[in-house]
Structures are given as C-alpha cells and as structure tokens.
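[Meeting: bench + compute handoff]

Bench side (C.D.) handed over the final construct sequence. Compute side (W.E.) agreed to return the predicted structure before the next meeting so the bench team could plan truncations. Sequence as handed over:
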Amino acid sequence: MKNSKFYNVLAGFIASMLLTVSANAQLVNCNTFLQGAYVEVGVNFNGAFGSSEPAPAGYHPRGAACETNICGGGTTCGTNLGFVADPAKDGWAVGTPDYIGDYFLPGVPQEGWSIEVAGAESDAWNASSFSLGAITGSNTSYSSAGGIRTAVWDGAAYGLSIKQTTTLDSSKLFFTVSVVLTNTTTGTLTGIYYGRTVDPDNEEPESGDFTTINDVTYQLPNAQNAVLVSARGTVYGAYLGLGTLDCRAKCYFQNSSLTPTDQLDALYNGTATNANYSGTNTLDVAIGLVYSLGSLAPGQSTSLVYTYILNAEDLTAALNAASSVSGGSNVAICSGTSTTLTATGGTSYSWAPSTGLSCTSCATTTASPTATTTYTVTGISTAGCPNSATVTVSVNPCDAGCPPSHGEATVCICHKGHTIAVAPAAVPAHLAHGDYLGPCHAGKSSEPEAALTSVTAVTVYPNPNDGVFNVQIPVDVKKAEIMVTDLVGRVLVSRSVSDNNGEPIQISLINQVKGLYIIKVNTDDATSVSKVLVR
C-alpha cells in the first residue's frame, strides 16, 4: 500500500509529460491542432482550416464566430481556431496588436477546399454548414518531431482517395499543405480539378474591419513558376498569402461573395463570371487557388503542394522551390567510346541535340558523340513545370599505342617500363601498384617509381582543394603537356604549354565530383605524375 501512492504520483507525472509533449500537435475528437512558436492552426473534421472544437489550453484563439461542433455536439463560439500568428515574433502578448487573427473564422467563417471530377464538384468549406456532397473523410493522425508538426486528413470523393497533410515548422511564419489524389477505380478519371479558397479576415478581431486589399501577385507564366494571391489588412497591414509553385495552377480573387460562385473548371479556364485573375480590389471577398490536374488512370496518383504565408518572400522557402532537373556531371570520353547520361528531377525528359544519343526521351541515355557536345535535357517536374540542365561530353583522342581492343575502349598504362593497354575498370588496381597513366617514354627508367620522380620540381597546390588548383613547372622547362584524368583514365583536362615562364597554371575541376584525380606532366624527356584530392 505504501508504494501505491508513489505509483499514482509517477503515473500522473508521466501523463502530464506526455500531454506537454503532444500539446503542440494533438487530435481533439475530430479536430487536429498544430502549434508552433509563431503560428497556430486548427483543422476541422472535413480538412478545412477552422476548428469546430474549442482550441486546447495554451493556444491563442481569438475573434472566431460560432461553429457547429460536429463531433462534440453543440456550438463553439470564440474559442475555436482557424489560423492565428505572431508575425513580429515578439511574443503573443507584446505589441499593438499583440498578434494577428483569427485570419479565417470571424464573421461568416469561410475556408476550405473543393474537388471536381468529370463536371461533378463537392466542397469542404466552413461556410457551407458542412455540406460535403460526395466527400467523405476524417483527421486520422498527427505528429510532432524536431520542431515539425503535421496533421493528416484522409478521405475520398468521386473514385479518388485524397490525403491532405498539413505541415507546420515551429520556427517559421507559414504552414504548407500537400495533397495526394489517387484513382481507386478500374477506369480512367477525367476532368480533375482541385481548389482552395478563403475569405481573409486578417485584422477583423483587432480593427473590426472585414475588408482586405486583395492582389494577384504572381500568375503564370513567370520565371519562378509562382502563383500567389494575397490579402492585406487596411489598418495594420497584416498580410496573408495563398500560393504555390505549380504550372497547373491559377489564382484569383472574387468580385463579390465570400465563397466561389463558379465551378472549378470555369475558374481555371477563365470563364468564371465572378473572378479576377490580375490586379487588385479592396473588398470583403474570397481569394483562392485552382488546379487543373487532367486525367488519372487506374491506380495513378498526382500530388500538389501549396502554402499560407505571412510574407510574400516566404513563398519559395515554404515550398522548397520547384524540383530542379539535372543531367549529371560533365564527363570526358575517348574518341570512339560512349558514356551514360542520366537525368533526374522530372517525370519525363527530352534531350537535345540528338547527335550521338541512343534515346532522346529517356531518363537514361547512352551518349557516343564524335566531337565534344553539350547536351540540354528538359524535364517536366511533378508540378508540371519545365526545367532544363546542361551536361557536356568532352571527346578526347586516346593515347597513342592504345587503340580499342576487339571494339572495347582501353587505357594506356606504363607498367614496369612497358606500355600496356588495359580495360578502364582495371586502371585503379594498376595505379595502386605504382603504375601510372599513359605510355612509357624513351629514356625513362623501367621502374615506375623512378618515372614518378623524373621531374621532381613540378608542384601541384593547394592539395587537397575545392576543385581549383595550380600546376607549376620549372622555368627551365619550356614545353610540356598537362593531362588531368580520373582514376579510370578518362581525360578531363588537356593543356599544352609552349613557352613556360614558371608561372602557376590554374586548373579547374569545379564541375567534377569530389575525389582523387591524376595530374600528368609530360616533357620531352620526362614525366611527372601527381595525385590531387578534390573535396
């Protein structure tokens, strides 16, 4: 009996600790709440922002109108949470106003999303008395780790499974929403559109003014692939932006109405009767994003990401920029050989020019150019945006005396005073045993170690380096050939020196991968071989 009191106290302590840990991300009945240092968000049962449950203790709800509590019963007034923030980062009780919001819930609460498939549309809005049409779903999980809070809503509509993940970085002044749509039917779904909309009441709890200055800041096309619509308060200038980096999206603000009065396809196609796609207005109206997502075959998925931000400059940071396409590092090959080029960062690709390529529409292609060629690969990102990158294939003549063997490329190696031809894959093993790249030269010792020291005054510095280094040849040596190769013998740099004055010669491997490279300096009667480390 003496120990029961101890265990009760211990159990209470553990429970309180768990509550403290989970307080910044928690599921209350059918609502999820996320709390950062400067931003707090409530997610309703339908995935819209604006809780129908009271915010937990320690949050900062303010200015919210009454919401029907779908899960808990009754009505919640003033203590429910949509989106509040401390943009000044000076504390929730400091300044005038001390913090901003609720951005979403004053007056007639309106924030939410819509889905349209083949002309049929359903809405999950806070202003629609929670009439969801074909939409079903619920908040299913939350997490908090390393300052990152997440809330997951899972649902379905029109044969699509829909997963919405809301992510809040505790140290930032924004939150992001990612949505994954998957066709769960046995047929192709066509005419898919997705939208997010809000009636921004940024400063109403502080100033009593529902009006905002609404602006289309970015509309495609533009260099950033940015789409951004914003609303700014008329008294304190409190800013709210809704944006994406997605080439399938458009943004708009309404001419009137707190909710869109046109279907998503009309909003996207520009046939809406109550939407503006450029300019500004100063009204109490809705702003929004709309995506045209095309068709999805059975089992196929597509995804999109957007953000609510409190500074326009945060759009790229919030979305980590659009995925960039890469064609890989520049490469050098011997004439008559080939190399593999691989593109990443896209869902489809196009290579140009086609000269020497085995495939111009593949992620991976074999390049066999007869002359140095710069290829451009253009990829389409998952956000539907084109991005390009270049990669240069340098073609160099193979060393004399090492022609291809049986059609296969070979590399010249000086092995114990004899020039031999080996496969590229065998080069590292030969170098490790003291052999060196290139043919042996007359007058040199048959022992490789002697050959390595035959031009002792050649210096390579700094070593290691970041990809740029100097080769310095003694002033009494007027002519020399400098060759830089990788460990499999591919020539990366070839430089002729015809009137050496002893000044350092700068070599750049800035576009090569980090690692060990071979520097060979040939003169009329000697060769120096050095190793340099790029890190």
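W.E. noted at the follow-up: The chain has three domains: 24-319, 331-396, 411-534. C.D. will use this when planning the next construct.
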